[in-house]
Amino acid sequence: MAIIGEWIRRLGYLLRRGAREDDLRQEMEAHRAEMGEPPAFGNTLRLREEARDAWGWRWLDDLVQDTRFAWRTLLHSPGFALTAIVTLALGIGVNIGMFSLINGLLLRPLYAGADAVVEVDSDSTTPFGGGRDFSYPNYRDLQEGTTDIFESMAAYSTGFVGLDAGDRPRRALASAATANYFEVFGAPPAHGRPFTMEEERPGAAIRVVIISYPLWEQLGAGPDTLGRLVRINGEQFAVVGVARQGFAGTSIPGPEVWLPLGAYETFTMKSGAGRALGAREAHELDVVGRLRPGISDETAEVALATIGRRLEQAFPAVNAGYSLDMSRPSMRLMFMPGAGRGSFAGLAVLLMLMPVIVLLVACLNLANLLLARGHVRRQELAVRSSLGGGRSRLIRQLLTEGLLLALAGGAVGLLLSTWAARTLLASLRPLLPVAVSLPDVSLDWRVLLGMMAFSLIATLVFSAGPALALTGRVAATDLKRDFSSGGDDGRRRGGLRIGNVLVIGQIALSLLLLASGGLFMMSAIKATMADPGFRLDGGLIVEVDPALAGYDEARGRQAHLALVDRLPTVPGVEAVTIGSGFPFTGFEDSREVARAGAADAQSTSVDAVFTVIGRDYARVLGLPMVGGRDFSAAELTPGAGARVAIIDDVLAEKLWPGEDPLGRLIQFLDAEGPEARQPILVIGVMPAVNHSLGNPRPYPHVYVPLGHHYESAMTLQLRVAGHVDEGPMLGTIARVVRDVDGRLPVLGVATWRGHLDAGLNLLIYRAGASVFSAFGGIALLLAVLGVYGVKSYVVSRRTREFGIRIAIGAHPRALLWQVLREGGRITAIGIAIGLVLALGAGQVLQGILYGVSSIEPVVLAAAPLILLAASLLASYIPALRATRVDPTVALRAN
Amino acid sequence: MPRDTGLPPGTLMMLVLRVLKTQPLHGYAIAQRIHLLSGEELRVEEGSLYPALQKLLIKGWVKAAWRASESGRQVREYRITPGGRRQLDAEVAEYRRMASAIDVLLDEA
């Protein structure tokens, strides 16, 4: 307690220190007056300071004083300050930029009180399914049976719908959710109301919708948005609510619209057909719950296991093997299947490593600058030391100066990074296949804290070393030495050697980043030129999805066929086909294919890309059939032909190695509905196509005719005549498609090459190449500045030596070569170390990159050459200055 | 740097508390009183007195207030607090114990 009283008094002193210091001064004056003998009292100022120090605020005074002094010092050398701040802004800026992206994606909680929200999972009983979902009746029983464990529990299902919010139908992510969905996440709608129980009831089909905050803003953010109608899968829905800003459910990107569970039929487009939502066996829903306060995970898991067993006993037919468990909702990044929050953390560390290396280069650079500057400031330091400035005090002063620079650099870097992160995200947006609300990368306390941390770490890295080095050897003799020009002494040489080491480090690290960037770039180029297995030139692609306009299967098929009939009549178009997928698009359906009737069907089945195609698919893609025939007209018509399929030779080789697959039977092990387990006759064999860059080896493919399977989202493939340039035809094709059916949602018209270039498959290589190259470029710039700084410093130090040598007849070219040779030697050592680092990085990147070996000769040759050239250029300017030293001026200077 | 008073460390604070125990005094008077009461044996340097007074203020063992002296001059008078009295008693007891122990040792040896 005494300690607390003491601190209160100390704080009180700090708050009224002006008055308290006046007290001290006056009472000492009074003391002196009574003594009547001034000299005995000594230095009153010093005595007063000593008395004041008892209060323990000296460090604060020192800090204020150091900051003021540092501020003045920096104002006196604006060139140095500016260089340092820009260097730090680059170094810290790239770190904050990357950090704010990671923060937006991974660190920010998705919703308030996220710890209490859990996902309820059930184990799978089928060999190919993931976790089994919940049917609505199972969900209701679960909810009613666990009210003592869960405060609230909600069910939802997420998928794509066609959304027409006034412009034209497009694909959008949507969730159908129960009434208390928003309550579970602790995120009631920002405007309007949540769904009602009446709207939740299966089959209710009350068409109301809650829209996401970004969509609300897109619609004008007005009060009249509530009650407005938007079209979802062709039906009119009334907006009754707006979700809270930043709320994205359990995924990034989050849904754009939420429908009540009662409108599930519109949501899934499975009107009438299949299983109704109210059926106990329709396992379609995900379940989340908010735990009651104080309920431990163990208690909840026991309760879930109990109710799971009860559900299994009550409905053994549909709930066989029902075992319930729970987990924290992982933030699932859409479009990166299987990439949960956890597995993404490793990537985050890797991503964070690059900017940290850039910051390291920036710090080495600054350390060098400070060291060079310190030699100039040596006299100042010697004076201060001789006037009683202790070493620790001098070090503190130098560190304060560094911190001031780092914070200034950090602040500028913060501005740079916010802009950079926004630009990066904005550039990603058009590449994504659907319009989504992307994570918020704006400033928050985490980013600010990150900036502070980066600045502090940077300060320690770049200014601690020089501060120790400079204050360690301050000697009285330094007072007498004239540091303003020339003079050679061993100590300074030592400092320079440190400088050289720092430059070597910078060059090595820059080479590491440059070579990594080069590898990414090589891989992006190779990926662009990757051979998909067919000729890319002369092809066009049209993506349509009739379901987005509410077309059912019959009307959808009509729309598809109308286009297949009309498009070949466009002048220049040679052939047209239709298919449910296209290589390199990133989305693909697949089936588990086995030999029909084989005893070992389960163990020998092959996962194959599943594509629904029309006639002439092989011909349009320029893939000559290896054997067999194309689909017949009957097979393309629903319900008409026999069940047939075309497989590619990769699949054929896996199922019947070395044998003729024609006339054999296959079956799909994981198919549902009428497709399930029926034998399918193989009537043709196509050559392999590469479906994805991630798999350098061709993946097995199976093709079925239009008649056997309906897929709403289809692509039309057009082959243009040999002499026609396909690019200019895009406009014509788009117009023709509109003429055929004005309501048909057209998701894209592109050349094959353009389509692949914009695909997700390339995105990651492109992004990697540009990010690594940008980091490499910044590091290169910093390293070159470092070389230039050191060389300039050396030359200015040796002005006198050069002057003498010129005076006694040295050839300027000899001096030029000497300076260049010294610069070259440092660079060569740096490059040698950097090459070793780059080889190591190559080993790591090899696993990620497409078609690039870790010892990529081009990259390993180009990166050192770029560095060498830049570094020689950086030494050339100071070297030239050395040759222009005027001997008379140089000699007179001392 | 505290001046060398010739006193064992910490003793000065005890002496100040002791002279303040009888009556409130200002800085110069404290130094005078210690000088006189010690038979002019101890001289308190001003450079030691004021830091010591600041420490006593921090500890809350004395309070200070401005007052007009008999001569009409404004003086800052220090007054011992109840906490200060307890501290003084404790320190005096401790000092006596130490001193007698040292005495015994010196006599025996």
Distance between the termini of chain A: 66 Å
Strand order of the largest sheet of chain B: 1-3-2
Based on CA atoms alone, the radius of gyration of chain B comes out at 15 Å
Mean of residue pLDDT values of chain B: 84
Unreliable spans of chain B: none
Radius of gyration of chain A: 36 Å
Average of pLDDT of chain A: 78
Low-confidence stretches of chain A: 126-130, 270-274, 331-343, 433-437, 483-495
Annotation field: number of helices of chain B: 4
Helix content of chain B: 55-70%
Strand order of the largest sheet of chain A: 2-3-9-5-7-6
Which term fits the overall shape of chain A?
A: globular
Please give a structural write-up.
The complex is a heterodimer of chains A (894) and B (109). By secondary structure, chain A is α+β, with helices and mostly antiparallel strands. In chain A, a hairpin with a 5-residue loop joins β2 (150-164) and β3 (170-177). Chain A is globular, with a radius of gyration of 36 Å. The two termini of chain A are 66 Å apart. Mean pLDDT of chain A is 78; it is low at 126-130, 270-274, 331-343, 433-437 and 483-495. By secondary structure, chain B is of the alpha+beta class. Chain B is 59% helix and 15% strand. Chain B has four helices and three strands. Chain B has a three-stranded antiparallel sheet. In chain B, β2 and β3 form a beta hairpin. The radius of gyration of chain B is 15 Å and the shape is globular. The model of chain B has no long low-confidence stretch (mean pLDDT 84). The chains are: A alpha+beta (894), B alpha+beta (109). Chain A binds chain B through residues 2, 5-6, 9-10, 13, 23-24, 26-28, 30-31, 33-35, 40-42, 47-48, 50-56, and chain B through 1-2, 26-28, 31, 46-47, 50-51, 53-55, 57-60, 64, 66, 73-76.
